[in-house]
Design brief:
- The protein is mainly beta and 122 residues long.
- It has one helix and ten strands.
- A hairpin with a 5-residue loop joins strand 4 and strand 5.
Length: 122
């Protein structure tokens, strides 16, 4: 059974930083790409980042490129998303997703954790 659990969300002022974590279990984490996506109230899911199993391939959405950094620790079966220079429009529920590149592109985010809420105020 795949298990994903995000943590690290909360409230922060615009311009601030936050680090999200995702603990994974129940599958071959080391060899599997991971995604981060978010969903703001009343909006569709938005892809944020893709990281390959060995961290050699990383992609970011234009909206977060240069501000967010994805990383992973395969020994700990963790994936992280560092959020810097946060904006009010970054307010959303953030999810880690077990997915491959086609999932990232096509919006297949079904295998995800419960999410962690990030609230950015001005």
């Amino acid at each position: 059974e795949v298990r994903l659990l995000e943590s690290g969300g909360g409230a922060v002022q615009a311009g601030g930083s936050m680090r999200l974590s995702c603990a994974a279990a129940g599958f071959d984490f080391n060899g599997h790409p991971m995604l981060w996506v978010r969903q703001a109230p009343g909006k569709d899911f938005e892809r944020l980042s893709y990281i390959s199993g060995g961290s050699k391939t990383i992609y970011y959405a234009d909206s977060v490129k240069g501000r967010f950094t994805v990383s992973r620790d395969n020994d700990k079966k963790m994936v992280y998303l560092q959020l810097n220079s946060l904006k009010v429009e970054d307010t959303a529920m953030y999810y880690c997703v077990k997915g491959v590149y086609s999932d990232y592109i096509n919006g297949n985010y079904g295998t995800r954790g419960p999410g962690t809420q990030v609230n950015v105020s001005d």
